[in-house]
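Task card 7
Instruction: Convert sequence to structure tokens.
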Amino acid sequence: MGLGTSGLRGLHASLGTDRLSRRDYCSGTSNLSTMHRYFPVAIAGSLALTFTAVAEARTVYECMRDDVLSLATAPEPGSRCVPKQVNERKAKVANFWGDLGPVRSPHYQRRINGRMVISTRRMPGWTEVESVVSLTPPRDSWAHFGMGAVGKPRLDIFDAQFKATAKKLGVEDAWLRAIAHAESDFDAMAVSPKGAQGVMQLMPQVAREYGVANPFSSAQSIDCGARHIKALIRRYRGDMALVAAAYNAGVGAVDRFGGVPPYAETRAYVEKVRSLYALYRTALDRPRRLRS
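Output:
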């Protein structure tokens, strides 16, 4: 059900597969150079990162048809749609539509051009969904909560390897450690229910594509994970929320939803990495301040 024009004010007041190949960001120079043709970014030294709010990376659409307003995650066929940036932190009540919601009328979904689109408008061929507060990831999705919990930074584990890899690839040390902490809690022998392995939780196909002989080798895992992260940073122009989301759920999910996927696992993971990143930046900067 949509909203009549008289309900517009109330709306604002109260209201493929995810597992795309990671070859693009974990197989070396040739694919990265291909990616750079589509995502040109000038980066010098350590890659610049911006960790915007999770919801701020997501665009939805206000669509009008027959004097009825609706919200959708992509332009509705046959409607006049205007893109809107969702900001969940400004929402009075946590909901799928952020500060544009909540919308308590039924929601509907349909796959359009390989992307699952959600709308508040009832249309022929669209299926009603019970809730869009969070969606259940597909069975083959990489989305996961991660094994590590937010806590005191652990700078003593694989310290030399993180420093060397960060310097070699130009990826911030604190970022690498935050991902490793969230993913495996620095357990080199960790295996997740999804089948991810090692410190950086590489999926078996990722390890094969990159030529990792031993995914349980901390050096090989950190190196591949860092290359993956570096390419994601380039792809998403330093938007750390999208980088974390893509590392968690895959670029397919991020691209299909136009931002951080509405999976409880992925959203919790992004927030966890956000917190850990801040802790590691502070912890790694402290020794430099003491030496100065």
